[in-house]
Amino acid sequence: MYSCTCLLRYLFSPSQFDLSSAIGVDTQPTPTPAAEISDEQLSVFLQQHLLAILTWLNGQLLSGAVVSRTRTMTAFARLLALIDGKYLYMVRGKVLGLLRLGLSSDVLVVSTLEAWRVFLRKLSFEQVHVILNESVFMLVSVLEDHEDSVAELLNLLIYDDDNTSEPGTQPNPSPHVHAHTTDTDTNQHEGQSPKNVTIDTRERAAHSRDALYVQLYILPQHPALERCRGVVERAIARLSFEDFLVQVCAYV
């Protein structure tokens, strides 16, 4: 518990406390110099204490004073920046709960959107798709007062590798980590060249993404969402009518 306290002190005042010393409390008999702290040590420490820290931060957001809650959300963003995406994905329910709580308070929205930006940039596109609908509709709830920030985040959630928002512009690639073809993929496509396997994998991923985006056909008409709505409309156009009905019926 003392090590959790040390880490929380760092998250709230990074200029006054040393992260390596906080992590070193549990990983070494004596505090470890910053240069000797490895990503693996940091990951092990955070895996052991992450749920407890998230629960404590949640309590602070619920009961703290305004200034305290703002500092808590900023500390939460710093915590997200330290954690590997695969571990964040494992506790995504807790993370989304904290983000939802932040958006429910006007004084926390700005710092919450910054934390959301850190969170989304840590995830792969497959992981983002799992939280797509929930995230989009939470963000849209604060669109009117935070158009630019929300539009930026929605662009991280809704993207099209083939999209050109204006004639002559470059395609808008996925901001997330793409899955790589594995030996298993290759074995499942025996007889195909590696190039064909890669193309087939990308096509299946693109079709899956289109199917998800169809569920966002009810995005509101808003100038800040013009690009995102264009992506959704192109996804609908690429799907067959039968696939479109399946996705819409699954959503409603």
UniProtKB/TrEMBL annotation:
Region entry Disordered, spans: 164-196
- Provide the UME domain boundaries: 42-145
Q: Which GO terms describe its molecular function?
A: protein serine/threonine kinase activity
What the entry lists under InterPro entries is as follows: UME
Q: Which domain of life is it from?
A: Eukaryota
Q: Which SMART domains match?
A: UME (SM00802)
Q: Which Pfam families match?
A: UME
What name goes with this protein? UME domain-containing protein
- Recall the taxonomic lineage recorded for the source organism: Eukaryota, Ichthyosporea, Ichthyophonida, Sphaeroforma
